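Per reviewer request, we include the raw input and output of the structure prediction for the construct analysed in the revised manuscript.
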Amino acid sequence: MAIGTEERVVVFDADKCSGCRICELVCSMRHHGEYNPKKSLIRIMANEEAGVYVPILDIQCHFCGECVEACPLEALSISELGEAVIARKNATIGSFPIPLSSMTGT
């Protein structure tokens, strides 16, 4: 049975992310036909000094999975909402569902 977009979340493993931002490039190419991270529906917020990266999804994300497939370190995955909630309760500090945000005007 196919999972509806309202029942999916992108799960992020912070322990795996290197901050390469390939996910941003792939997303912008898929949705806008150009490599432009400012047009991506996923954004990596970075604290370079601490080596901490946190992605944020635009509320317009349809969970196409292109960012997940492109991630060379498998830091992203798509999960059903219920599974993600359970995973979050049992997760290490580095694994969590990505928050949704309205990134309009950026």
